[in-house]
Write a structure and sequence with these properties.
Elements: E1 16-26, E2 29-38, E3 48-54, E4 64-70, H1 73-76, H2 85-99, E5 102-107, H3 110-113, H4 116-126, H5 132-138, H6 149-157, E6 162-166, H7 170-178, E7 182-187, H8 198-207
Parallel strand pairs: 4-5, 4-6, 6-7
Antiparallel strand pairs: 1-2, 2-3, 3-5
Helix pairs in contact: 4-5
């Protein structure tokens, strides 16, 4: 793909502030976790996002392999088979570890931004025959409420200005570029669907423009 040129930096303050960080031993090895809090709130329960930092991406030459990943409790914690989120996250970790450095911006944007409770309400509607888009609209929400300026500001704080993005979603490419991150390439991160996720992934491909190679 052709490079996406970021906009000229503005004087707008960042959307997040670095709050805490530590190296944590995980099943994937030692990972530096950097927690960012959204600005404008002193509330101890303010929304927090996390960057998983592998190696030293700020010192890397060229674009950094990165993923912008939205929280999915149903898949990542409870093992839901209705989506591919958990498998995408694990695949991103493996591929970043293979190159030795990179960043995963883990955003607290459950259910494409509608929250866990509304996501489960949407699941109930899907069980009645609606697709994922129709369910969100029926509940009074837009199709996708996620924002990517938060991820862009996290990357900037970590010293990353150019990325190769692990994604199938063109809106993520555009969102990061709009917020001042140079996207110099895209790497597909496609997971083989199961019988529970086929319809969900097909809807994303056909109606949301996701770059998937699903059989028609």
């Amino acid at each position: 793909m052709k490079p996406n040129q970021p906009h000229t930096p503005s004087s707008t303050p960042p959307t997040v502030l670095r709050y805490a960080e530590a190296v944590v031993p995980t099943i994937h090895g030692d990972v530096r976790l950097v927690v960012f809090r959204e600005r404008g709130s002193e509330d101890p329960h303010a929304i927090e996002h996390v960057a998983m930092v592998f190696g030293e991406p700020a010192k890397a030459s060229g674009a950094v392999l990165a993923r912008v990943h939205s929280e999915c409790i149903t898949s990542e914690v409870f093992g839901s088979l209705k989506c591919d989120c958990r498998d995408q996250l694990l695949e991103a970790i493996i591929r970043i570890q293979e190159v030795g450095h990179g960043v995963i911006c883990y955003l607290r944007q459950e259910g494409r931004g509608i929250g866990l409770g509304n996501k489960i309400r949407a699941y109930a509607l899907q069980a009645q025959g609606l697709d994922t888009i129709e369910a969100n609209l029926h509940l009074g929400f837009d199709v996708d409420l996620r924002r990517y300026d938060v991820a862009a500001d996290m990357l900037k704080d970590l010293g990353v200005r150019a990325v190769r993005l692990l994604t199938n979603n063109p809106e993520k490419l555009a969102g990061l570029a709009e917020a001042g991150i140079q996207v110099v390439g895209r790497e597909s991160i496609e997971i083989e669907p199961n019988r529970h996720s086929e319809s969900y992934l097909s809807t994303k491909q056909k109606l949301m423009g996701h770059l998937l190679a699903l059989a028609s």
